[in-house]
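USER: Fancy drafting a protein?

ASSISTANT:
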Amino acid sequence: MSFENSTNNGNNQEEHKHGKPEGYQISRTDMNMLIMNYLVTEGFKEAALKFQQEAGLQEPALCSSLDERIMIREAVQNGRISEAIAMVNSLHPELLDNDRFLYFHLQQLQLLELIRAGRAEEALSFASATLAEAGANDRAALAELERSLALLAFPDPHSSPFADLLLPAHGQKIASELNAAILKMENQEYTNPKLCSLLRMILWSQSELDKHNVKYPKMTDLANATIEQPK
C-alpha cells in the first residue's frame, strides 16, 4: 500500500468520523430527476421539455391539467386574480368551496392589488364586503387580513414593515399553494416537488438534532447550501 493511499484512507475515515457531507455522493441521474419533478410539478412545461432534451432524459409524464395550471399560475403571479379564480372554478368547481383558506388567500391577493394601485377606499370596501367574514371565523385569516390592511397606514406601503406582502415572492407562494391543491384534486401522487420535501426533511432533522444538543455540520442557508461545521 502506498503512502498516498494510506493518507487518502485516513482522510476518508476522518471525514466519516466527523460526518462531513463531502464524503457522500449524489448521482447526476438522481439530481436530474429531482429537477425534472420540480419543473413538471410546478407547471414549468417549456423548461421541463427543454431540460429533458439537454439532460437526455425520457420525455416527462405531463398530467392533463398542466396547460391550465400554467395559465392559472401566470394569472395569479401577474395580479389577474379574478381571472385565475374563474379558471379554477371552470377546471374544478368544488376546489375553492372545499378549501376556504386557499380562497381567502386568493381574495387577499385581490386586496393587495388594490393597495398596490393606491386605491385605498376600494381596498377597504373590498375587505369589508369580501374578507371580513373569513377574518371573523379564522384567527389565522384575521392576522393576515390585519397585516394586509396595515399597509394602508403608510404613505409608501413598499417601505412598510409589511412590504413582503407586495413582493412577487408572496404571489408565487399562493400560486404554488393553488397548484398543489389542483394536483391533489386530480389525485396526483405528488402535489409538491420532491426537492421541497427533501429540504423540509433537512430542516426537520436539524431541528430534532438541535433539540438534543447534538453537534453536526448544520446547513444555515438552504439557498446557498452554506454549511457550518460544529465547534
User: Anything to note?
Assistant: Residues 41 and 193 are 6 Å apart (CA to CA).
